[in-house]
Design a protein that fits this description.
The protein is of the alpha+beta class and about 400 residues long. About 20% of the residues lie in helices and about 30% in strands. The longest helix is centred in the C-terminal third of the chain and has 17 residues, at about 295-310.
Length: about 400
C-alpha cells in the first residue's frame, strides 16, 4: 500500500500582538534620533513575516526612518522567560530590512495603520526575534501601550542602532512602553492558530505571558497568545482629558480596531472592573463623576456587544470573571455587589462559548471578596506573580 503524506498549506497567523492606546502626556513627549528594540517570542516555525505599525491614537503623522528584524543572540530555548541584559544582543548576520512598498521608510498618518511588505525570514519556534525601529526626526510618541510580563520588555537607545549587534550600555534603557508596533504575522502551518486576550491592566500585565510559557512547558505548539489590553480602559466610558487619556479608549472605540487578527479563532475577554472602581464623584475628582457608574445590566450589555462583534468575526468567546477588589482605595460594598452581579451573569455563559473563572482561581476561600494569601500584588486590585500564574492555569486547554 502506498502512503502519501499530505502537507498542509501555509497560512498567515498572528504570532505576537498588542493593543494600541495613548501614552501619558508629558512635556518630553517627542523623541528624535532614537531606536526602539523589542524582543518578540516566536511560537511557530515560519518562512515570512509581516508587521503592522499603528498610529491609531496619534494626533499627527509619524515617520519610521528604518525598521529591521533579527534573531536575538541570547538563549531563548528554555521553558522559562529569557534573561535579557541591557545590550539586548541580536545576530547581525540575520538582520533583514523591513520595507513598505519597497521603501525602507514610511509615514503613518494620524489615526492610521500600515502593514509592511512580506519579509522573507526563516523563523524557528522558540526563538526570540528583535524588531528595531529608528526615528531620525522629531516624533510624537503618543500611540503606545504599557505592557509588562516575563515576555514583555523593550529597549530604547540613542542613535540608529538597527544594525548594531549590542545596544550601547551608556545610551540605552529599558522600557515597558510599546510604541507603534501592534502586530506581527508569520507565514506558518495552517495547523497553527491565535487566541486573543482582550482587557485592561490585568491583561496588560503578566497572565497572557504566563499562558504562553505554560503552553511551552506542556508542549502545546500550535497556539499563539495575542494580547490586546490597555491599562485603565473601561467597557462603557473613556476620559477625554490629558490627565487620564493614557487610560485609553472605551470598548466601542477599541474593540473592532484591535480584534481582527490573522489566524485567530478564539477570544478571552476580561474587562469591566475599571467601570466599577473609577467613579468617585466630582467633589473628589472632577474627571470621575458618579454618573459614570454603570448598572450591572449596562455592563452586561457591553459584554454582550463584545460577544456579538466577536461572533460576527467567527471567533469563539470566553469571558473571564472579575477579580477581588476588597482593600482597593475606592472599595465599597455597592461596588462589590455590582461586581458579583456581573460575575454571576458571566458564570452562566449564556450566549457565548464559556466562562473562565479567574475570580475563583485567585480569591480567598474564606473571604471571597479578597485575594488569596500570596496572590495580591499589594494594591488589592492586581494579582501578584503567583496570582497571574494561577490565572493562566485557570484557562482550559481544550481550545488552546
Amino acid at each position: 500500500m502506498n502512503h502519501t503524506t499530505i502537507n498542509k498549506p501555509d497560512t498567515w497567523c498572528s504570532m505576537w500582538g498588542n493593543a494600541v492606546s495613548i501614552a501619558e502626556h508629558r512635556p518630553e513627549s517627542y523623541a528624535k534620533d532614537i531606536t526602539l528594540r523589542y524582543p518578540v517570542y516566536a511560537p511557530f516555525d515560519g518562512t515570512s513575516l509581516r508587521f503592522t505599525f499603528d498610529n491609531y491614537c496619534g494626533s499627527e503623522p509619524v515617520s519610521i526612518t528604518k525598521a529591521t528584524v533579527s534573531v536575538a543572540d541570547f538563549n531563548t530555548n528554555s521553558d522559562s522567560a529569557p534573561k535579557i541584559n541591557l545590550s539586548c544582543p541580536q545576530k547581525k548576520s540575520t538582520t533583514t530590512q523591513i520595507t513598505f512598498w519597497g521603501n525602507p521608510s514610511v509615514t503613518l498618518d494620524a489615526h492610521k495603520r500600515i502593514v509592511s511588505d512580506e519579509v522573507s525570514f526563516q523563523v524557528q519556534a522558540g526563538q526570540t526575534l528583535c524588531v528595531n525601529l529608528y526615528f531620525a526626526d522629531f516624533t510624537l510618541m503618543q500611540s503606545a501601550v504599557l505592557i509588562t510580563g516575563p515576555l514583555s520588555k523593550g529597549f530604547f537607545s540613542l542613535g540608529d542602532q538597527t544594525l548594531t549587534e549590542d545596544l550601547p550600555l551608556d545610551t540605552s534603557k529599558t522600557t515597558s512602553w510599546f510604541y507603534f508596533l501592534s502586530n506581527i504575522d508569520i507565514l506558518t502551518s495552517s495547523d497553527n492558530h491565535a487566541v486573543i486576550c482582550y482587557g485592561d491592566s490585568i491583561t496588560a500585565q503578566a497572565w497572557p505571558d504566563e499562558l504562553t510559557l505554560r503552553l511551552r512547558r506542556e508542549g502545546r505548539k500550535h497556539t499563539s497568545i495575542i494580547r490586546r489590553a490597555a491599562s485603565g480602559t473601561r467597557i462603557l466610558r473613556q476620559y477625554d482629558c490629558i490627565t487620564y487619556d493614557s487610560y485609553g479608549l472605551k470598548g466601542s472605540n477599541r474593540f473592532l480596531h484591535e480584534i481582527p487578527a490573522a489566524g485567530a479563532d478564539t477570544i478571552i475577554i476580561q474587562q469591566g472592573i475599571n467601570d466599577i472602581i473609577h467613579p468617585v464623584g466630582t467633589d473628589i475628582n472632577p474627571f470621575r463623576p458618579m454618573s459614570d457608574l454603570p448598572t450591572a445590566e449596562e455592563l452586561i450589555d457591553g459584554l454582550k456587544w463584545y460577544t456579538d462583534q466577536a461572533h460576527s468575526l467567527g471567533l469563539s468567546v470566553y469571558i473571564g470573571t472579575l477579580l477581588p477588589i476588597e482593600g482597593w482605595r475606592t472599595y465599597a460594598p455597592f461596588r462589590e455587589e455590582l461586581k458579583n452581579k456581573v460575575n454571576e451573569w458571566i458564570r452562566q455563559a449564556d450566549g457565548f462559548e464559556g466562562c473562565i473563572d479567574f475570580d475563583l482561581a485567585v480569591r480567598d476561600s474564606t473571604n471571597p471578596a479578597a485575594f488569596k494569601a500570596g496572590y495580591d500584588s499589594g494594591d488589592h486590585l492586581h494579582p501578584s506573580s503567583a496570582g497571574y500564574k494561577a490565572m493562566a492555569d485557570a484557562v482550559s486547554l481544550r481550545f488552546l
